[in-house]
Amino acid sequence: MKKYETVFISDPDMSDQAREELLERVKGIIDREKGILLNVDEWGLKKLSYEIKKKLRGYYVCLTYGGTGELVTELERNFRLSDFIMKFMTILITEHVTEESLKEEAEQAKEAALEKEAASQEAEEAQEDVEEDNDKAEENEDDQVDAQETETEPTSEPAEESKE
């Protein structure tokens, strides 16, 4: 078994649902060909270096997986048939890997992804707390400014008459 990395660029005008279906189809091909998917890294929408199929932007996805040469051939055949895939490239990362080491690496990648997701959720919650505190502080400042303005407002006293 070998370890591969495939980067493909899909049409930026695809809907999110169509993009998810495309990704599920790719995962299905890897499963069907007895491959082991290690990581799916969606890089997102990026500017292209040059125009491809009259598009200036593309949606990048990087797949890391273990499998055989037949898996790569089948995956690339499907990429060529798809109207949504603009470009793709596959590289061989490691030539000789065991299925057990790939499965272990896949588990570690899943754990790392879960930890990363939990950390990002904690960061979002902390950011929301900071924003709430800032909003409250601004409200208190506004209340204090209003109170000071009402205390220092001059009372309306009759103006002195000029004696001419």
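(ticket continues) Second input and output from the same batch:
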Amino acid sequence: MALKTQSKKQLKSQAKAQAKSARKTAKKAGRRASKQVAAREDAVRNLIENQDLHEDLRNLADAAKAAYARVSANPGALLQDKKVHSDVRAGTSALLDAKGQLGGKKAKKKKGKFGLFFLTIVGSSIAVVTVPALRTKALDLVFGPEEELDYSVGAAAGTASTNGNGAVAGTPTTPVSGS
């Protein structure tokens, strides 16, 4: 059986398709490279012109120098000295600020903790309303524990009654003189 060979027309169309695919890939790579070059140019321009970035880098260098000076004199200070920890924290903060500014990203605004507080209050309220054991604990915390009342009925309980003065009826009371 003879193998079928491709015609010249089929070979030309296949070559054109491969060339077209290669051109598309080259265009994509060129666009990607130009975007990377533009981003790097912006970063370098930002590094040169941005005074806040200069200040952050200066703070980073100062904190690193101070921490290194303290640790080089006493290597044990790395684990124990709070001043070293403070310097490292300051340096880390300055580094993160500089990184954010190099990327051209705006610093994120710190949101308040009101949402977390509100969620905690609402969740606690729902838990107290729906779970009886929590409800009794909450009432005991707010109003104190309930007093157990003893309702015993008997002969001794019926004989002792008090009059308006707080004394037991049937016992003589001595009047208190005003002087």
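Agent notes: The chain is about 70% helix and 0% strand. The helical segments are 8-49, 51-73, 77-80, 82-102, 114-130, 132-143, 155-159. Closing as not reproducible unless the customer responds.
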